[in-house]
Design goal:
By secondary structure, this protein is mainly α. It is 87% helix and 0% strand. The termini are far apart.
């Protein structure tokens, strides 16, 4: 299958994008898991602790009103007591809908039973003076309810500690897992980027050196790229160009040699002609000198006669 450089580059970017998505996916998974654990602590156990505190505060306020009215010899504030009873009942109903721990349902059922008895007993006061026996009865009921509510608060407080420790362990495991996964993905991405860069750098370097050799008239330079991408096609075109340049250089050298031989022949002919002319000139000079000598000899003979 033929893959172009653009396709390889696009696949590389998609690969890096997939690695990023994997990291984001696992990060979201661990964060969601940790968020669910912390949300469970806040939504379930913490609310139960809040409901228990509200119920206990309501009981303390009612007991304070009853005790104060008995000590000051006045009638209890029935409206205030009914308001606090309503607040306690509301918190109790909310707690019944927020049962999360084993045994919590039985404990809440016991609190509800005790609260109903206490509410009915306090409701009978109806603004009248209280006797010592009633005060002792209310104190006994209050002690039982307070003890049950404290147990409810302690149960959920212990659950908060356990779940908090579990959340810490989950967070530590998430950090460890993300560190391992991140390191693994980083090594994969680094290896891919290095291989991808080496692939292009090697071919660009060979192509650059090949062009330099051609510029230096080394037409014997050839490129050999593996694969069937654009670099392979470039190497074929480069080799064809180098081959044609080499053939053109050979033809030019042959033509230059022939021209040199012809020029050499012409130079030899020219030199031969010059030598002939020189010889003829010398012969002519020797002939003139010989005529002068002969004329001198003839003039000498005539003087003797």
């Amino acid at each position: 299958m033929k893959l172009s450089i653009r396709t390889k580059f696009a696949l590389g970017m998609i690969f890096i994008f997939i690695i990023i998505l994997v990291l984001l996916g696992f990060s979201a998974f661990y964060m969601n898991k940790l968020s669910n654990k912390t949300s469970a602590i806040l939504k379930e156990n913490y609310l139960s602790v809040v409901y228990a505190r509200e119920m206990n505060e309501g009981l303390v306020n009612i007991n304070q009103e009853i005790t104060t009215s008995f000590l000051t010899n006045r009638n209890p504030d029935g409206q205030f007591i009914q308001k606090e009873l309503g607040t306690i009942d509301q918190s109790l109903q909310l707690e019944k809908g927020n049962i999360t721990e084993p045994g919590e349902d039985k404990l809440v059922a016991g609190i509800e039973t005790g609260f109903v008895e206490y509410r009915d007993s306090v409701g009978k006061v109806n603004g009248s003076l209280l006797s010592a026996d009633q005060i002792l009865y209310f104190q006994k009921k209050l002690g039982f309810l307070s003890q049950q509510i404290v147990l409810l608060s302690q149960m959920n407080g212990k659950a908060i500690e356990v779940k908090t420790d579990d959340a810490k362990v989950s967070a530590k495991n998430a950090v460890t897992g993300m560190t391992i996964l991140g390191s693994f993905c980083f090594l994969i991405a680094l290896s891919f980027i290095y291989s991808f860069a080496s692939y292009f750098n090697e071919r660009f370097f060979q192509l650059y050196n090949g062009i330099k050799e051609i510029v230096s008239s080394n037409y014997g330079q050839r490129l050999y790229f593996d694969g069937i991408d654009e670099f392979y096609e470039i190497s074929l075109l480069f080799n064809q160009m180098a081959e044609k340049l080499s053939e053109g250089q050979s033809q030019n050298e042959q033509e230059i040699s022939l021209d040199f031989l012809e020029d050499s022949k012409n130079d030899d002919n020219f030199n031969n002609i010059q030598e002939v002319k020189s010889i003829l000139t010398r012969l002519k000079s020797i002939g003139e000198q010989a005529e002068e000598v002969i004329s001198k000899i003839e003039r000498g003979k005539d003087l003797k006669i």
